[in-house]
Amino acid sequence: AFGLPDHLVVLLVSADVAATRKPDHRPEVLAAKGVAADELAWLAERSDAAIGPIRVDADRPLDAVLLDVKRSLWDVL
């Protein structure tokens, strides 16, 4: 059985950037996924399980996002 994670990495991307990266997807679905990711992070912050969400601005280039994720994880480990 798996337990809850200690941290949750949430990649936040704007609807415009998501649509540019995934032009074959419906824009309203991409926008809804972005809202859902932000709400998931908000719920994780307020849960009794004390899961620490790590919000990362994923509008930036991949190399910058990966570096930010790595740095954030090292900070909490």
Describe the protein in words.
The protein is α+β, with helices and mostly antiparallel strands and 77 residues long. Helices cover 55% and strands 16% of the residues. The protein contains 3 helices and 2 strands, in the order βααβα. The longest helix is centred in the middle third of the chain and has 20 residues. It is globular and about 35 Å long. The two termini are 23 Å apart.
State the helix count: 3
Task: Sum up the overall morphology in one term.
Answer: globular
Order of helices and strands: EHHEH
**DSSP strand content:** 15-25%
- Helix/strand class: alpha+beta
Topology:
Elements: E1 7-12, H1 15-21, H2 27-46, E2 52-57, H3 62-76
Please give a handful of descriptors for the protein shown:
alpha+beta, 77 residues, 2 strands, two-stranded parallel sheet
Question: In brief, what are we looking at here?
Answer:
It is built from three helices and two strands.
